[in-house]
Amino acid sequence: MSQADADALLQEVSAYLKSEDVALIQSALDFSHAAHAGQLRESGAPYVTHPIAVARILTPLHLDVHAITAALLHDVAEDTNVTIEQISTRFGKQVADLVDGLSKIDKLQFETKEDAQAENFRKMLMAMARDVRVILIKLADRLHNMRTLGSVSKGKSERIAHETMDIYAPIANRLGLNNVYQELEDLSFKYLHPNRYSVLSKALKVARGNRREVVSKILEAISQRLADNHLKAEVKGREKHLYGIYEKMQTKSLAFAQVLDIYGFRILVDDVPSCYLALGVLHGLYKPFPGKFKDYIAIPKANGYQSLHTALFGPFGTPIEVQIRTHEMNKLAESGVASHWLYKTSETQINELHQKTHQWLQSLLESLAQSGDSVEFLEHLKVDLFPDEVYVFSPKGKIYAMPRGATTVDFAYAVHTDIGNRCVATKVNSELVPLRTELRNGDRVEIVTAPHAHPNPAWLGYVVTSKARSEIRHALKTMHLDESSKLGERLLSQALTSLSIKLQDIPEICWDRVLKETGSKSRQDLLTDIGLGRRLNMVIARQLAKMSEGDNTRQEFNSGGVITLLGNEGMAIQYAKCCRPIPGDPIIGVIKSGQGLIVHTHDCPTLRKGRSGDEWLDVVWDKNISRLFDVSLKLIVANRRGVLAKVAAAIAEAESNIENVNFSNEGEYTATYFTLQVNNRLHLATIMRNLRKIQEVIRIIRVKNTG
């Protein structure tokens, strides 16, 4: 190993750790060197230089002995024959748990690289939720890998840079590690867009020299005005990092010169009142841009960041951006969640940050638990790391930080899962608004709920937070399974009735035997499989009959097993779009595997193409069915002014809604296609009678084959 690097590490940890802790780190250095003996990095350097570099990235944050030790050993369990158990015996359980949380999962378990990558993130984030040091070590590991990315192939470097930009840089930002975040973004930019990076970095070096005089004049003017007002302050110029400049050029369509025309400054003062006094002094020196002031002291960002931001018209109209904060806030802005180890002051502020971080990690764990798979969870994570935020208020004045683009439904789920699931309407600033309304800074949001309401699948089209998305999917899946279970029970009851057996008469022991034969975990799982068409109701009915009657299973059938459609079955029963059946139509049901019961009209052409494995069932409409059904009509009308208004009025008079309308011009006539909502065939007949009274309507056809 590089003795100079190892010595530098020991010197750095000696500055803040006890001698016995330094001795443990020396032991870990020797252990890592022996374990990685003979291994080289792609650059040709000895492999042990990497864990030493990772540990050295962490020492400025003053991480404890266990974290530094785990950093030195983080690749040992993954790339050598050393086991987690051996690490635990030698260095303790705490170090072993950190190393285990950082070790990748064997990729041979997964079908694709995407699955393996996503599962690795799941494991890492679960470990991170238990101990935030896991992600701090992982970020240091990724930072050193990015610093040495030039030695790997172009394809691999681009893949790693994409992953860093999508996941690791936003996580560093979310944890308040500003320096790590900016360096990860700049390095990702370098390997994703090498030409743009090169051009911008050269232009920035030239611009620095040209700007020096202007910056010094503004610094002098600000410092003098603050001193005149007896404010003790440290004033310095602030420059955007390279990717920040590029991003601003892209999002605001600005040229490089336009971005560099904006001069940035940071003012550090001793306490919070001085921040607001300094703001007043600055606004007296230079005129502020209207609407550009942000108070992150009163309402901190989710990662704990606090500062006052203002934009000013500087000398000769030069735009100036200024951040005003205390020295403590500045430390927190640079080190974020790692401030727990680095600073022992301002414990209240640090504890609040740790509480917010814990809440975020808990929400990730909830999302993880409800995700269908690792790739879906990774999608949730990327959404959750969306950087821009808006701040909104509950009716009682509680502040919620929401990602930009979040809707009132996102807010409902942020308050509580039950509030989201039962949401029926929302008020923003005391006015009723659509559920898809995007929230803006300062909005006061009130959620209206109903006891029996449930999520709408359409919400997935506009929610943006991972919590809302995962909770909606979970609720819909649960609803679907519950409805399918109830349908399965009805289908099984029908099949048993045809064998002259009542469902409630089946002994428990028979259920147990059938569950064992079918491999189902529970009776509800078996009924759900029947409802979804994965198992045939008649096959299960005969198995149950055989168990309860011995081998003398009844073979006689009766006609008592007809499924009655109530209209409230939800997603468990589908009404075929190819023929759009409505109450009053002669119908038949088809069980399709994984889809459940699909209802068609008797004369539906699609039925003739059905697979031989499909099970057909007798179904009838309930007399009191109350839901609305879609029906398609084709109207041939004469091309005269006002005819569409007459048709719409006739449909409205018959108390029907128009869901969709399309036109097709056919010379003197127009073919108009309507999708209407009706109660039943009698309702449809009333609508058609009203339409026939219109002189311009030449012909009316009910279109059944629409799919």
Q: Would you write up a description of this structure?
A:
Helix content is 50%, strand content 16%. The protein is globular, with a radius of gyration of 34 Å. With 707 residues, the chain is of the alpha+beta class. The strands form six sheets. Strands 1, 2, 3, 4, 5 and 6 form a six-stranded mixed β-sheet that branches. It folds into four domains: 3-192, Hypothetical protein af1432 (Orthogonal Bundle); 196-345, Beta Polymerase, domain 2, CATH 3.30.460.10; 474-621, no CATH class; 629-703, 2-Layer Sandwich (Alpha-Beta Plaits). Strand 5 (308-313) and strand 6 form a beta hairpin.
Shape category: globular
Alpha-beta content class: alpha+beta
Mean pLDDT: 82
Number of domain units? 4
Helix content: 40-55%
**Count of DSSP-assigned helices:** 27
Largest sheet: 6 strands, mixed
Question: What is the architecture of the largest domain at the second tier of CATH?
Answer: Orthogonal Bundle
CATH superfamily of the largest domain: Hypothetical protein af1432
Instruction: Give start-end ranges of low-pLDDT stretches.
Output: 105-110, 551-560
The CATH class label of the largest domain is Mainly Alpha
First-last Cα distance: 69 Å
- Look up the CATH topology of the largest domain: Hypothetical protein af1432
DSSP strand count? 21
The percentage of residues in β strands lies in: 15-25%
Rg of Cα set: 34 Å
Question: What key phrases describe this protein's structure?
Answer:
707 residues, alpha+beta, Hypothetical protein af1432, Beta Polymerase, domain 2, 4 domains, 6-stranded mixed sheet, 50% helix, globular
